[in-house]
Amino acid sequence: MDIKDFEVDGDGFLTKPELWNEEVAKMFAKSDGIEEMTPKHWAVVNIIRKNFEEKGNAPMVRTICQETGLKLREIYELFPLGPARGACRVAGLPKPDGCV
Amino acid sequence: MDTITKEQRKAALDLMKANLASDSKFQTHLNACVRCGLCATSCMYYIAFKDPKYIPGRKVNLVSSIYRRYFTPEGKYFPSLFNARNLDAEMAEEMVDCLFGGCTMCGRCVKHCSIGVDVSYIVKKGREMLAVMGLVPKTLQATVDAAINTGNNMAIPTEEFVDTIKWMEEELQDEMGDPKANIPLDETNRHIIYTLNPREPKFFPLSISAMAKVFYAAGESWTLSSKYYDVTNYGFFNGNNEEAAKIAGYLYDETHRLKADKLVLGECGHGSRASRWEGPNLLKKAYDFEMTTALELMAEYIRTGRIKVDKTKNQTLCTLHDPCNLVRNGGLLEEMRFVVKSCVANFVEMTPHGNDNFCCGGGGGQLAMSEYNERRLKIGGIKADQIKATGAKIVITPCHNCVDQLMQINHTYKLGVTIKTVAEIVADALVLPDPASPHDNPADTAAETVADPLHTDSNSSK
Ligand code: SF4
Ligand code: SF4
Question: From the CB of B35, is ligand 1 less than 6 Å away?
Fold first, then answer.
């Protein structure tokens, strides 16, 4: 399986978020230079995924910190492209609007 | 695009006619370009792709060839002789591709054109025509719609915004060791109403606490609004002036509702421009309160000694990225350098910089348009090379839109730098007043007395 097998928008976000699974997440992470998805990475991705399935959008970074117990700084270290272009993309969300 | 309807063409031509009648600058600049091509090498798109369609004069020519075809007799009767073109599907497609997808409206070419053709202004007029034809790229329009419908371009619900601000407030109180260090929300009669880019509360809130720290050190009387705090205005880029006016109106009205003396525009280039410089045109009235940018406010605090900064606290080599809308198009070149050089010990300029600086590549609404992401990252390579050549490890810029593009460039071109806003650099350099001695800023005390004449201990905890 390869990223090219999936339809993504110009920014590389999944066009059909329902096609997401853990393999897809690993593949996207790898293309961002994250060699291994650690339990911390998964904790962030799962909470983003949950929020998206319940509310239809990406959670605030505060919610991510609160639910995972991670510090802000750790989130930025885990996903060098930040919560939006980094973590939300790995979690298979569409690109959020605005300056991200 | 297969066809465009008669109605679409008519809407665009009617708008062009109205613009020609109401704004003499339009006709002058349409006629001024002599197609010499000198501007070619000033444009990042042309430098990066070497495709003639990106030459700034060519972008002007798209719009001016429609003008000649429909509004001059020679173009009407001898279109090919006079370089006049029909507004058909092919033309509309080229316009979308070059005016939306091939220009950041950075204005660098304007400085390089010997005649001074205002290319970005013509590009904006072209975008306005595309907007009345319903041809705004979807992702850009979605960002404008979110701002209009919810008050902020990321559609953040108010409770979630408030929770984030409370969280940042707790962190600030911890850091300052002072339970009175706060981030006021929806307070009336404060001196300042401060504004944010929604990406701050949503994903990058540290710049909010940085600015709160600066306000704390200055003893400022300020507030945020929990509903209309968004400083951005993508209506400035989608070519729909009514939408731009509506968004600018939110901040205007909120400043009145909260009875603040001064609207302070957060670190955002186009947002500052849309309110500060274009706001009166958009709203068709003069602003009856003061307005300034966070950058100028911090410069004033430092200059008047209202905050103290120690540059030795920032030792890492820093460089500065000039946002087009604040520097080339906003005149804040010196202000910005004054603030940054007061706060960092080691500073190096990019080449070129200041008024001749290259755009980060994310301007003109590019950051919101996924359709053109690849182009945006390719032209960003010019900025990447500039940054690399400085050897700096921190890139400072007073614009969250530039910050996001620079973060992506940093990752894509493996620069290994940190991107910071000016507030973050100022906050890092702050010398805080001794917490043991109470704040004794006369301006602040005066403001508080007027705001709350019945001030007692029982209601001071709000
Ligand atoms: S915009 Fe100016 S520099 Fe460019 S082709 Fe036209 S006249 Fe020449
Ligand atoms: S405004 Fe900037 S991006 Fe647009 S044509 Fe001129 S130099 Fe190129």
Answer: yes
What's the average model confidence in pLDDT over B332-343?
A: 97
Ordered by where they begin, the domains of chain B are: 6-135 (1.10.1060), 147-303+444-449 (no CATH), 308-430 (3.40.50.10700)
* Annotated catalytic residue A99: yes
pLDDT confidence of A33, banded at 50, 70, 90? confident
B414 CB-contact burial (10 Å; exposed 0-12 / middle 13-18 / buried 19+)? exposed
- List of chain A residues whose C-beta atoms are within 8 Å of the C-beta of residue B160: 60, 62-63
Could you say which of B167, B199, B373 has the minimum Cβ distance to residue A100? B199
To which residue do tokens 């969300």 refer?
Answer: A93
Residue (of A12, A2, A4) closest to A81 by Cα position = A12
Contact A98 B199 (CB under 8 A): yes
Q: Which ligand 2 atom lies nearest to the CA of residue B105?
A: 1
The predicted structure's pLDDT at residue B214: 98
Per-residue pLDDT, averaged over A64-90, amounts to 93
**Angstrom distance (rounded) from CA B394 to CA B384:** 13
* Res B289 pLDDT > 80: yes
- The distance of B201 to chain A (nearest Cα, Å) reads 7
Helix ranges (DSSP H) in B72-150: 73-77, 89-95, 108-112, 119-132, 138-150
pLDDT in tens, B400-430: 999 999 999 999 999 999 999 999 999 999 9
- The minimal CB distance from B370 to the residues A81, A95, A98 is found for A95
Instruction: Supply the pLDDT for residue A1.
Output: 58
Domains of chain A: 3-90 (1.10.10.370)
Contact B435, B280 (CB under 8 A): no
Task: Provide the whole-model pTM.
Answer: 0.90
Cβ contacts of B197 on chain A, cutoff 8 Å: 98-99
Smallest CA–CA distance, residue A81 to chain B, in Å, is 7
B155-187 pLDDT, tens digit per residue, is 999 999 999 999 999 999 999 999 999 999 999
Distance B390 CA to ligand 2 centre (A): 24
The C-alpha atoms of residue B443 and residue B453 are separated, in whole angstroms, by: 15
Which residue's CA is the nearest one to ligand 1's atom 7? B33
